[in-house]
Amino acid sequence: MVVPSRKLQDLIEEIRGAKTQAQEREVIQKECAHIRASFRDGDPLHRHRQLAKLLYVHMLGYPAHFGQMECLKLIASPRFTDKRVGYLGAMLLLDERQDAHLLITNSIKNDLNQGIQVVQGLALCTLSTVGSAEMCRDLATEVEKLLLQPGSYVRKKAVLTAVHMIRKVPELSNIFLPPCAQLLHERHHGILLGTITLITELCERSPAALKHFQKVVPQLVQILRTLVTTGYSTEHSISGVSDPFLQVQILRLLRILGRNHEESSDTMNDLLAQVATNTDTSRNAGNAVLFETVLTIMDIRSATGLRVLAVNILGRFLLNSDKNIRYVALTSLLRMVQSDHSAVQRHRPTVVECLREVDASLSRRALELSLALVNSSNVRAMTQELQSFLESCSPDLRADCASGILLAAERFAPTKRWHIDTILRVLTTAGTHVRDDAVANLTQLIGGAQELHAYSVRRLYSALAEDISQQPLVQVAAWCIGEYGDLLLEGSCEETEPLQVEEEDVLDLLEKVLQSHMSLPATRGYALTALMKLSTRLRGDNNRIRQVVSIYGSCLDMELQQRAVEYNTLFRKYDHMRAAILEKMPLVERGGTQDEEIKESKEAQLSEASLVPTEPQASELLDLLDLLDGTSGAAQPPPPLEPSPGDVLVHLLDLPCDLPSASPPPASIPNLRVFEREGLQLNLSFVRPPGTPALLLITITAINTSEADVIHFICQAAVPKSFQLQLQAPSGDTVPAHSGLPVTQLLRILNPNKAPLRLKLRLTYNHFGQSVQEIFEVNNLPMETWQ
């Protein structure tokens, strides 16, 4: 005989009355044992009460898996009280990882066909919560029928269930296309909101659906215009804004439909201007609608005046007291700075003000936007603001700020002296946070500015005398003193204050660097090399320098020991060659992007002799593609180049300086866009190294302007048999959305016969949940790539 069980309310009171966790566990264990016994004995009248108590136990974090089958029994019961608890239990205790959830498919199907609205609502809620792909395929027809039922209660839940089905099984899109067109005529805001969400899911996952729904843009525009012009409604208005949730969802859908579609964009331009000018921004609901309007204007092909209006709205957001609104404004302006640079520039003072924000996330976004706003006309003012920020910012931001200032100075420096002063100030303020190549870049810059050698060495000597803790600054100063120590002693520089420096002062300072516990091994190497070079530039006796060098001949650091031994050998055996070996480095002329490409090409040539394919599997696959002339080009490296004596000398002295290339710069080859689909773009850029005219370097750059990331991105290439192809590994396999960091891949093609180049590409990737494969041939390559 079944013992009468307590009610759920009594169980809750007893559990809450437990004074310790042990008492609570004891109460729950006893009740769970009683529930198991009741399930075992099969008490149909009180089964729903037992399951309700078990669900409460499950909510407290205790195991309740033994109630799964009881959920199925209650769902199959004809009583509504049983179904209600059974469906609730199924939503809490079942999921796709358990096969038991498939057993309720037939029960849900029967309940959907019953015609009782409350039961249909329970079945639809459960299906949209735990429905697997198999369940969605089996029940899609029933849900489609319910979309056009007369009752708004069932239709609203059916629309939300259809959204879940599309997310689980995108190939069900065709089933739900016809009902959506009819549901757009609904006046019930709940059904309309669900319908807009369903159409959005369909358009994001199916290009056919996107093309189908672009025809209803005028209808969506009319719905949104009605919402904007409607007065206050008790049922739908929030903070004076008419149903902001529906407005936001319609704007998101319009953004998808208008992207890369001129006709749809023209249809919604006037409405977007109306929403942007008439929405009340005194409350957060109005700001949400306005921000969504700005995002839509940015993504569609909107008019120029409308885009300026969107930027001005974001500028007003920067003045808002709410930090969240300021953050989204900074993020959005950062996205727009490339396409609407002049419009964003108008809000530069406000952006700079945001650098002083206490909130770290706001100051970081403001820093990124400030760096993006730097150009040749404002580089002096912006750099000054950024340097002030660098002195007071948190350590987490110093590396990004210092690197950004150095990059901006390199791109937009008005004069070489200003460039040198800027880098020196950054090294003095945050030397330990700069990039690794900052030392090499500055030494190259100073070496190429012959008229500033005296000025630079004096500035660096003064900075080094004040502080030797900033290692990059110490390294540059040591290199410069070693190269131009004679200019430091002459005292003939008119651009700086008079500075009287003696030989002993210079040697004392370098010895201080060598002996400092703050100096890194690399810094000591720079100082030791500087002392060695000063032995040919100072007029006095070199005995002190020889003593210091000999001391480091027994240093524990192998690099320093090797240098010291080599320098001692120069003193002892090759003293007659010392002046020639330690003479000043030749001038290095710094150029723009073209010179950088020559440098990269030269490095590529020097490393070709030892290159092996980084991805042998990919190379083997290319041999099987059979894309052009039966096979792809063999991935053989081009012939190696002989290093020049100057390169050997630079390697011997280990100095951070590159020798100028003797060959003339190559002719500029225009870039070429070869692929564009749903926001994914593929561009080719070309470089022909001057030393090897038969070699062509092609950089493939993939950019994604869509809303979703492109994942599992693979690019493969093939060329005719007369060419030799080497395909290097890409920089990544994910192309971020919203024009994030592009993915690049390098192709090396050797064309000894100078034959017209043909290239075939195969792309495979996943986008919007679908697997895509594209194979196409590129026949319109510029003539400069092969002639």
Shape: elongated
**How many helical elements?**
35
| Terminal Cα span | 98 Å
Largest sheet: 5 strands, antiparallel
Strand content: 5-15%
Spatial sequence of strands, sheet with the most strands: 3-4-5-8-7
Mean pLDDT: 83
Rg on CA atoms, Å: 36 Å
| Poorly predicted sequence stretches spanning 5 or more consecutive residues | 591-663
How many beta-strand elements?
Answer: 10
Helix amount, in percent? Answer: 55-70%
Summing up helix and strand content along with how strands pair, one would put the structural category as alpha+beta
GO molecular function: clathrin adaptor activity
Keywords: Cytoplasmic vesicle, Golgi apparatus, Membrane, Protein transport, Transport
Family: Belongs to the adaptor complexes large subunit family.
Organism: Canis lupus familiaris (Dog)
Summarize the structure.
By secondary structure, the chain is of the alpha+beta class.
Textual characterization of the structure:
It is a single chain. By secondary structure, the chain is an alpha+beta fold. The strands form three sheets. A five-stranded antiparallel beta sheet has the order 3-4-5-8-7. It has a three-stranded antiparallel beta sheet with strand order 6-9-10, covered by helices on one side. It has a two-stranded antiparallel sheet with strand order 1-2. A hairpin with a 2-residue loop joins strand 1 and strand 2. The longest helix is centred in the first third of the chain and has 21 residues, at about 20-40. The radius of gyration is 36 Å and the shape is elongated. Mean pLDDT is about 85; it is low at about 590-665.
